Each structure stands twice: as structure tokens, then as C-alpha cells.
């Protein structure tokens, strides 16, 4: 079975084509600067060579049609016709309370996704455009939606409710939903497969950290809490998002800076986080370089970033009554060994001991980085959300 996975953003379309019979990635790449001058398709060939094709792509239909034309191209393609694609799996950001798992796309499902647009106005509309584009380009193609929020629908009400009037929950669905669910689900399960332990009997903390980031508490195979909330702003310090902040501080800032709702949204989503604190960049590689040069604000930003991760790990260990496995993933979790070391330092009281030598310099590999006598297994697992989406698609359509 050949499954195309699409991740449609407002200005990008990422894709991977899988042969699920052989677990082989046949093609992968993405359109960038969609709808903007200078748009292009960048993809990786089987030999690892990167190819960039410039083309003006005004909207998602044109972008996906261009991707399909390259997949079937005599020079760059890996399939002879669209008909070789058996199904399409879509990353969908917000499923609200309507979806606790992945589902085949139907008119009713699309209607529910439209109802969730208010909860993810920047993400769900392009996700829907991708679904509609595929329906137009390959009529009758079967499609599956895999929701970022679905894995966290197992949270108990006392974990997902805010201390706001209950009427606002009933009226607008104001509650914690959480994100990165596909990644948290994949790496928590994959860690147990690597370690040879039963998934349904473990207390796992998954740290998906990068430019965006979230921590999840996974107990006996189910998410019981996660750091992101109604939106992806809450929780950790991120590249440009502020993470946890006193709501009273926000109303104070709105008053002093004369900000409307959009102005506040821009402040907390695009001007804050590591970039806002450091004044340098949202890229952690640039922050680490500035730290090495002794830049005080870069040092402060990195300290806040690391401290928030450590604090959530401690909180979720308390929530679960302990921790068996700590999983690192995401751009920083997989590659920034210094952050892993700093976060895991002085955690021996809860049975967590990092092997400094194994950890140092280790990037992007599946590897246990705890000491043999550590009661908590610390492991790095590169995330593979696209494979999880393809797997869900195959399972659902197979039924």
C-alpha cells in the first residue's frame, strides 16, 4: 500500500510518500513560500541529493498538483501515475473534543473540522484546503485525518479544565487540548519497543522540544496531562512563543501598550519566547553560539528554556507517582545534548542519572543516555510523525 502523507500549513505543504509494505520512504519534500513571491519545491532524492524547483504557486491546489507532477515525473518521480497512491493521510492540528483518534475523512468529519476553526484559525483552514485539493485532483481517493489533539483526549477533566467560569467551557470549549499528540504517541510507544517493556504498564514523560515544544505525561499508554493548552502558546518557553505567563500580566500589557486582541496575539506568539528574551534569534543554535560568547540575555533565555523543561518533568513525575522513562525528541531534544544534560542534572533524587559521556555530542539517534544504575531510563527517540500518520491511515482503511 502506497500512502501519501500531507502536512499543509498556511505557507507550506510538506509531504512524504510511503510504501507501507516495505516500510520504505519513496519520496519526501515540501513546498515553501506558498502564495508568496519566490515559492519553490524542495525534495530529497533517494541518493540523498537535495533538489529545488522554483515555481510560482499561489495556493494549495497548485502546490499539491505540482507535488503530484514531480512524483510522477520521468526524471524525479517514483511512481508512474496518481493511481498508484492508495490513500492520503493528513496532519490536522485541532480536532477539539470531536476526535479522540484518527478517522477517515467524510463530509461529516469535514463539518466537525470546520467547527474547530475558531480553536485553530491559522492551522485548520490550510489542513482543510489540503483535503479538498486531493479530492479535486484524485477524485474518490480515500483520506484520513490524524489530529494533533487526539492523543490528549484521554486527559481527566481536572487536568484539562481551567479555573474559569464553567459556562465558558460549555459555550466556547475553553479547556486544555494539547498538541504534538502524534509525536508524543509515536515516541512513547517507540521507546517501549526499543526497551522491550510493556507500553501499557509504564510511566513515561515525553519531551518534544524545539522551536515549538511540549511535555506530556503518558501513564499506561494514555496521555494524562500535557503542557500546551487551548492553543500552542501555553507551557514551555519556545522560539517565539512566551509559554506560561500570568494572565494578569497580559491585561496589564494590553492597557499600557494599547494593544487589541491581534496585537496581543502577535506579542505572545511571534515576538516572545527565546527570541523576545534574547533579542537575538529563535534558533537555538544561534542562542548557543551567543552563550559561548558570553551574551547575558542569551544566557538568560537558555536558562529559562531549560528550567521550564525541568520544572514540567518534575511536575509530571509527581502527577504520575513516579517516572519509568524520559523520552527526548524534537529538534532540540534530539540534537542539543547540552540542554539534555542541564535538564537532567541534579535529578538523582527521583532516580534519574544521565550518562554524561554517552549524551555528549549525541545527535539524532535512538539511544539510551542514562547510566546503568539509573532508575529512570533516559532515551532519545527521533520523532516520525509522518510514519505515524501513514500507519494510522493504513490501519483505518484496512478495517
TrEMBL record:
ATP binds at residues 14, 208-212, 283-285, 331-335. Substrate binds at residue 91. It is found in: Cytoplasm. GO terms for cellular component: cytoplasm. The active site is at 148 (proton donor/acceptor). Mg(2+). Can also accept Mn(2+). The record marks 180, 241 as: Transition state stabilizer. Pathway: Metabolic intermediate biosynthesis; acetyl-CoA biosynthesis; acetyl-CoA from acetate: step 1/2. Its main location: cytoplasm. Its EC number is 2.7.2.1. Belongs to the acetokinase family. Catalyzes the formation of acetyl phosphate from acetate and ATP. Can also catalyze the reverse reaction. This is Acetate kinase. It comes from Parabacteroides gordonii MS-1 = DSM 23371. The gene is ackA.
